[in-house]
Amino acid sequence: MEIIVTLRKKELLEKVLPVVDGVIVGKDFTSSYHLSLDDISYVNKYCKDNNKKVYIVLDNFINEEELNSLKEYFNFIKELNVDGIYFHDLGIMDIAKNYGLFNKLIYDGKTVLCNSLDTTFILNKGIDSVVLSREITLKEIKDIIHCNAGKVDLQIFGHLRMSYSKRKFLKNYFNEINKEYDYLNKETLYLVEEKRDYKMPIVEDGNGTYIYTDYVLEMFNEICDLKTYLKRGIVDTLFIENDSLIVEVCRDYRRISQANKNFIIENIHHNYKYDYSSGYLYQRTNIVKNEQD
Amino acid sequence: MIIHQDIYIKGQILLRMNKIELLAPAKDLNKAKIAIMYGADAVYVGGKFYSLRSRASNFDLDDLKQLVDFAKPYGARIFVTVNIVFHDDDYFGIREYLKYLESIGVSAVIVSSMALIPIIKKETPKLECHISTQLSSMNSSAVNTLKEFGADRIVLAREAGMDEIEKISSQTNVPLEVFIHGGMCSNYSGRCVLSNRMTLRDANRGGCAHSCRWKYHLFDSDEIISNPNCLMSMSSKDLRASAYIQRMIKANIASLKIEGRMKSEYYIGQVVKTYRKMIDEIYEKGSLDEDRLNYYDNELSKAENRPSDDGFLSGDCDNSKHLYGINGAGVSHDYVAYVHNYDELKSIAEIEVKNIFKKDDVIEVFGPDIDNKQFKIEYMFDEDWNEVTLANKPTQILYVRIPFKVKNADMFRKVSIS
């Protein structure tokens, strides 16, 4: 299993590269990561010079009117000769064919790839691999990866994206309450539902608004059982301001074993105070409303 | 019977006219029949399993067969939603279910699982495979991909603008379905799991708690920046695309879809009838002027239970298209009775009470063959022929004198209080 990390800022590159197999980069309008094309070129060259891999992320939906810009971006991606392209919009499959990049595609449906049949179906189209939904249990993950060993990625660390909207929730809200506020691309904002106390990061960019889990997923306890079957483990850095944590997490995922995992978990939890969670690994969501709801 | 898009002889379809399809939702058998009687060309419903909207009553296997049989003489088609985001064990029994749907004459299934497409094509080839809006298709490349997967129809994302819909349609021969009316997810469909986190109810398997319509405090680091008198909400107004129907027809959209599998028979009847008449008038006259559009908007507003707008069809959604301070839909109390029968000799209608009304109220009757005809309640009787002056018991059967002919499935709404 490769350990790869998303770059929420260029400055993270040199710190994290020694402890990862590759990095994921993205630019505005096509993703929730906002490096410039120059930055992406720089990262690509730096990684190649250091024998590390580079992945492009396209984790947004694409409007019809954005298709031409996307095709220009694909020319740029093709020249970079990156190692893979994470995509969210199924239209990317149609476009990538025309650039000879189809076999580098990695499907990340975020919330919708929850079963073996769909996983096998889309892999059989000839793409490189897939990222499983974050909302499935450990048992479900195991069932899926056993059918598709070596073709599946998993987000193994970071906040989980809970919602994605084309609507500009923050802009609209500040307009509604007549408040001037510097909100765009700001990673320090969070929502708290009026009857609950979860602090859920919310960020708005030119594409819309994203809301993430209050907790940080970590799965050191489970990764030893999974890593033989996984192609890549993804460490997501959005909203994680502490670069040392990112570096340590990536290093730990690479060196973890049954023998040292308890030490690693204790060390991370002790030194870096975040709300860690195993997400849905042991918590199945209900199909229907509970009686008490 | 409304003869909306086909020509019939003795209840059998003779010629299907090439009109845009009006597709209506239904929560149960009665509402599905209402949708068809009021002019829907097709109705989409959910079964007991595999379907979002778990709180809708949903149809068991017998109901589905009854519905298909009911729809046949009207030339209406039945679509069944199989649109949950499947986990492995959700697929249990799906093949048998699809075969049953095919065997009883269901026309299409609406799916979000890509893996079901080849299964449907191979094992139940008479079923059309429609791709749910859960896959958020909003560009021609996505449509091409899904076409290659084998899709027979694609439901576009509600985030697509009218200009984009026209462009997408011009570049594909796959039939496209577009939402024109009803509730809107404020996030991309299928990509919101707020409900999973906050209630453990799976938004993509029929358990959505509509967390987007709740109220939220907004913080920047440790500082609260939301207004305590107007907390943040993601709640969107409902969609009303009446002003875009002409463009949708010109753009060769295959189907116009009404949202609302949780809605009442009144809502279904009023909305379906209004769009039915609107579509027919456009085909008949070639266009609608502003007065006629205003008329239809007014008709739609009678069924409205949440403020509405044109969503992304006109471009971006600004704050005027959001709801702040309102959590959910209100319930209209204008709908007061449902007609079961009419005795022409005595001019007496047998009605079922839905909401409170009384003697001397002015009532407007609408139905598949009657347009907003008014009368004043002068005589009402219960089943023992005792005179009633106040109808305030929902489901009670009453008898009302009406000076004009009504029939089963017509509805009463209150227009003024005396």
How is this fold's topology laid out?
The complex is a heterodimer of chains A (293) and B (418).
Chain A: E1 2-6, H1 12-16, E2 22-25, H2 37-49, E3 53-58, H3 67-80, E4 84-87, H4 91-97, E5 105-108, H5 116-123, E6 129-131, H6 138-147, E7 152-158, E8 161-165, H7 169-176, E9 189-193, E10 200-205, E11 208-212, E12 216-218, H8 220-226, E13 230-235, H9 243-255, H10 261-271, E14 276-277
Parallel strand pairs in A: 1-2, 1-13, 2-3, 3-4, 4-5, 5-6, 6-7, 7-13, 12-14
Antiparallel strand pairs in A: 7-12, 8-11, 9-10, 10-11
Chain B: E1 6-9, E2 12-16, E3 21-25, H1 29-37, E4 42-46, H2 61-71, E5 77-82, H3 94-104, E6 108-111, H4 116-123, E7 128-131, H5 140-149, E8 153-155, H6 162-170, E9 176-182, H7 194-199, E10 216-220, E11 223-224, E12 238-240, H8 245-250, E13 255-258, H9 265-285, H10 290-301, E14 308-309, E15 335-343, E16 348-353, E17 357-358, E18 362-367, E19 370-376, E20 380-381, E21 390-391, E22 397-401, E23 411-416
Parallel strand pairs in B: 3-4, 3-13, 4-5, 5-6, 6-7, 7-8, 8-9, 9-13, 12-14
Antiparallel strand pairs in B: 1-2, 9-12, 10-11, 15-16, 15-23, 16-22, 17-21, 18-19, 18-23, 20-22
Helix pairs in contact in B: 1-2, 1-9, 9-10
Mind explaining what this structure looks like?
Chain A has 293 residues and is an alpha/beta fold. Helix content of chain A is 33%, strand content 22%. Chain A has an 8-stranded parallel β-barrel, surrounded by 5 helices. A 4-stranded antiparallel β-sheet of chain A has the order 8-11-10-9, covered by helices on one side. Chain A is globular. The relative contact order of chain A is 0.14. The model of chain A has no long low-confidence stretch (mean pLDDT 95). Chain B is α/β, with parallel strands linked by helices and 418 residues long. Chain B folds into 2 domains: 6-194 and 234-321, TIM Barrel (Alpha-Beta Barrel); 335-416, Elongation Factor Tu (Ef-tu), domain 3. Chain B is 25% helix and 25% strand. In chain B, helix 1 (29-37) packs parallel to helix 9 (265-285). The two termini of chain B are 34 Å apart. At the A-B interface, helix 4, helix 5, helix 6, strand 8 and helix 7 of A face helix 5, helix 6, helix 7 and strand 10 of B. Strand 9 of chain A pairs antiparallel with strand 10 (216-220) of chain B.
